[in-house]
Amino acid sequence: MSYGQTWPTATFRERQQLYAQMHPLIKQVDAPQWAGWLAQLRAWAKLSEQGRDSHRAMSSTELQQFASNSLVTIGAHTMTHSRLAAQSAARQAEEIQASKQQLETWLARPITTFSYPFGGRYDYNQQTLAVCKSAGFTKVAANFAGQAHRWSDPYQLPRQLARDWASERFAQELTRFWVI
Protein backbone atom coordinates (compact mmCIF):
# COMPACT_ATOMS: atom_id res chain seq x y z
CA MET A 1 0.00 0.00 0.00
CA SER A 2 1.28 3.46 -0.81
CA TYR A 3 0.01 6.96 -0.21
CA GLY A 4 -2.12 8.30 -3.05
CA GLN A 5 -3.00 4.82 -4.26
CA THR A 6 -6.68 4.04 -4.81
CA TRP A 7 -8.36 0.75 -3.99
CA PRO A 8 -11.56 -0.85 -5.18
CA THR A 9 -14.28 -0.52 -2.54
CA ALA A 10 -17.52 -1.12 -4.44
CA THR A 11 -18.26 -4.52 -2.91
CA PHE A 12 -18.28 -5.77 0.66
CA ARG A 13 -15.46 -8.20 -0.20
CA GLU A 14 -13.29 -5.40 -1.59
CA ARG A 15 -13.85 -3.32 1.56
CA GLN A 16 -12.97 -6.35 3.72
CA GLN A 17 -9.74 -6.83 1.78
CA LEU A 18 -8.85 -3.16 2.19
CA TYR A 19 -9.55 -3.39 5.92
CA ALA A 20 -7.32 -6.47 6.19
CA GLN A 21 -4.50 -4.55 4.49
CA MET A 22 -4.96 -1.34 6.50
CA HIS A 23 -5.46 -2.73 10.01
CA PRO A 24 -1.84 -3.88 10.54
CA LEU A 25 -0.59 -0.52 9.24
CA ILE A 26 -2.86 1.50 11.52
CA LYS A 27 -1.65 -0.48 14.55
CA GLN A 28 1.96 0.59 13.82
CA VAL A 29 1.48 4.36 14.08
CA ASP A 30 0.81 6.65 17.01
CA ALA A 31 -2.71 7.61 18.04
CA PRO A 32 -2.77 11.13 16.52
CA GLN A 33 -1.66 9.80 13.12
CA TRP A 34 -4.26 7.02 12.95
CA ALA A 35 -6.93 9.41 14.24
CA GLY A 36 -6.12 11.59 11.23
CA TRP A 37 -6.38 8.62 8.91
CA LEU A 38 -9.74 7.66 10.39
CA ALA A 39 -11.00 11.22 9.95
CA GLN A 40 -10.00 11.03 6.27
CA LEU A 41 -11.82 7.70 5.90
CA ARG A 42 -14.96 9.10 7.53
CA ALA A 43 -14.86 12.12 5.21
CA TRP A 44 -14.42 9.85 2.18
CA ALA A 45 -17.32 7.65 3.33
CA LYS A 46 -19.42 10.71 4.27
CA LEU A 47 -19.87 9.42 7.83
CA SER A 48 -20.06 11.40 11.04
CA GLU A 49 -17.64 10.90 13.92
CA GLN A 50 -20.46 9.70 16.16
CA GLY A 51 -20.97 6.35 14.46
CA ARG A 52 -23.89 3.96 14.65
CA ASP A 53 -26.07 3.71 17.77
CA SER A 54 -25.57 -0.06 17.72
CA HIS A 55 -21.81 0.43 18.17
CA ARG A 56 -21.67 3.24 20.69
CA ALA A 57 -19.78 3.16 23.96
CA MET A 58 -21.67 2.97 27.24
CA SER A 59 -22.61 6.25 28.85
CA SER A 60 -21.10 6.95 32.27
CA THR A 61 -24.55 6.31 33.79
CA GLU A 62 -24.79 2.91 32.05
CA LEU A 63 -21.24 2.10 33.16
CA GLN A 64 -22.09 2.95 36.77
CA GLN A 65 -25.14 0.71 36.63
CA PHE A 66 -23.13 -2.13 35.08
CA ALA A 67 -20.34 -1.71 37.64
CA SER A 68 -22.81 -1.94 40.51
CA ASN A 69 -23.17 -5.69 39.85
CA SER A 70 -20.91 -7.62 42.21
CA LEU A 71 -20.00 -10.06 39.40
CA VAL A 72 -18.56 -7.29 37.22
CA THR A 73 -15.02 -5.95 37.30
CA ILE A 74 -14.32 -2.73 35.44
CA GLY A 75 -10.79 -2.21 34.19
CA ALA A 76 -8.97 0.47 32.24
CA HIS A 77 -8.09 0.04 28.56
CA THR A 78 -6.44 3.34 27.40
CA MET A 79 -8.12 6.43 26.00
CA THR A 80 -7.70 5.72 22.27
CA HIS A 81 -7.27 1.92 22.05
CA SER A 82 -3.89 2.42 20.40
CA ARG A 83 -1.23 -0.27 20.22
CA LEU A 84 0.92 0.66 23.19
CA ALA A 85 4.19 -0.71 21.80
CA ALA A 86 3.87 1.78 18.92
CA GLN A 87 3.71 4.71 21.37
CA SER A 88 6.47 6.52 23.23
CA ALA A 89 6.84 5.79 26.94
CA ALA A 90 5.32 9.19 27.74
CA ARG A 91 2.34 8.57 25.44
CA GLN A 92 1.80 5.11 26.96
CA ALA A 93 1.74 6.64 30.45
CA GLU A 94 -0.74 9.29 29.32
CA GLU A 95 -3.04 6.74 27.66
CA ILE A 96 -3.01 4.33 30.60
CA GLN A 97 -3.19 6.82 33.46
CA ALA A 98 -5.88 9.01 31.86
CA SER A 99 -8.05 5.96 31.26
CA LYS A 100 -7.65 4.88 34.90
CA GLN A 101 -8.37 8.37 36.22
CA GLN A 102 -11.46 8.80 34.07
CA LEU A 103 -12.95 5.51 35.26
CA GLU A 104 -12.12 6.29 38.89
CA THR A 105 -13.90 9.63 38.53
CA TRP A 106 -16.98 8.07 36.94
CA LEU A 107 -17.19 5.15 39.37
CA ALA A 108 -15.84 6.83 42.53
CA ARG A 109 -13.62 3.86 43.37
CA PRO A 110 -10.11 2.61 42.61
CA ILE A 111 -9.51 0.86 39.31
CA THR A 112 -6.91 -1.89 39.78
CA THR A 113 -7.25 -3.92 36.58
CA PHE A 114 -6.17 -3.13 33.03
CA SER A 115 -6.35 -4.82 29.65
CA TYR A 116 -3.84 -4.13 26.87
CA PRO A 117 -5.47 -2.98 23.62
CA PHE A 118 -5.08 -5.81 21.09
CA GLY A 119 -3.04 -7.55 23.80
CA GLY A 120 -0.75 -9.72 21.73
CA ARG A 121 2.79 -10.17 23.00
CA TYR A 122 4.05 -7.56 20.52
CA ASP A 123 1.31 -5.03 21.30
CA TYR A 124 2.91 -3.95 24.59
CA ASN A 125 6.47 -3.82 25.92
CA GLN A 126 8.55 -3.51 29.09
CA GLN A 127 7.75 0.21 29.30
CA THR A 128 4.05 -0.67 29.27
CA LEU A 129 4.52 -3.15 32.13
CA ALA A 130 6.38 -0.49 34.14
CA VAL A 131 3.62 2.10 33.57
CA CYS A 132 0.95 -0.39 34.65
CA LYS A 133 2.88 -1.21 37.82
CA SER A 134 3.46 2.44 38.70
CA ALA A 135 -0.20 3.27 37.99
CA GLY A 136 -1.21 0.83 40.73
CA PHE A 137 -2.77 -1.93 38.67
CA THR A 138 -2.64 -5.34 40.35
CA LYS A 139 -3.86 -7.43 37.39
CA VAL A 140 -3.34 -6.81 33.70
CA ALA A 141 -4.82 -8.93 30.92
CA ALA A 142 -2.96 -9.62 27.71
CA ASN A 143 -4.59 -11.38 24.76
CA PHE A 144 -3.02 -14.75 24.29
CA ALA A 145 -4.57 -18.09 25.07
CA GLY A 146 -3.92 -19.77 28.36
CA GLN A 147 -5.10 -20.17 31.90
CA ALA A 148 -4.10 -17.92 34.77
CA HIS A 149 -2.47 -19.59 37.77
CA ARG A 150 -1.08 -18.31 41.05
CA TRP A 151 2.39 -18.33 39.46
CA SER A 152 1.28 -16.33 36.38
CA ASP A 153 2.75 -12.88 35.84
CA PRO A 154 -0.03 -10.56 37.07
CA TYR A 155 0.97 -8.01 34.38
CA GLN A 156 0.61 -10.51 31.52
CA LEU A 157 -2.42 -12.63 32.34
CA PRO A 158 -3.83 -14.66 29.45
CA ARG A 159 -7.41 -14.06 28.40
CA GLN A 160 -9.75 -16.04 26.25
CA LEU A 161 -11.33 -14.54 23.16
CA ALA A 162 -15.13 -14.43 23.28
CA ARG A 163 -17.13 -13.38 20.25
CA ASP A 164 -20.83 -12.82 19.72
CA TRP A 165 -21.31 -16.56 19.29
CA ALA A 166 -24.53 -18.54 19.30
CA SER A 167 -25.05 -20.30 22.64
CA GLU A 168 -24.00 -23.68 21.20
CA ARG A 169 -20.67 -22.31 19.98
CA PHE A 170 -20.11 -20.52 23.30
CA ALA A 171 -20.70 -23.81 25.17
CA GLN A 172 -18.18 -25.56 22.87
CA GLU A 173 -15.57 -22.87 23.51
CA LEU A 174 -16.07 -23.13 27.28
CA THR A 175 -15.69 -26.90 27.11
CA ARG A 176 -12.45 -26.57 25.11
CA PHE A 177 -11.11 -24.05 27.61
CA TRP A 178 -11.33 -26.49 30.50
CA VAL A 179 -9.56 -29.30 28.65
CA ILE A 180 -5.93 -29.38 29.71
- Tally of separate helices: 6
Low-confidence stretches: none
Strands of the largest sheet, in order across it?
1-2
CATH C-level class of the largest domain is: Alpha Beta
What is the overall silhouette? globular
CATH architecture of the largest domain: Alpha-Beta Barrel
Structural class: mainly alpha
User: What oligomeric arrangement do these chains adopt?
Assistant: single chain
Q: State the CATH topology of the largest domain.
A: TIM Barrel
What's the overall average pLDDT, rounded? 89
Radius of gyration: 19 Å
**Overall structural domain count:** 2
Relative strand content = under 5%
Number of strands: 2
* Percentage of residues assigned to helices: 40-55%
Q: For the record, what is the CATH homologous superfamily label of the largest domain?
A: Glycoside hydrolase/deacetylase
Q: Please give the largest β-sheet.
A: 2 strands, parallel
**Helix and strand run:** HHHHEHEH
Distance between the termini: 42 Å
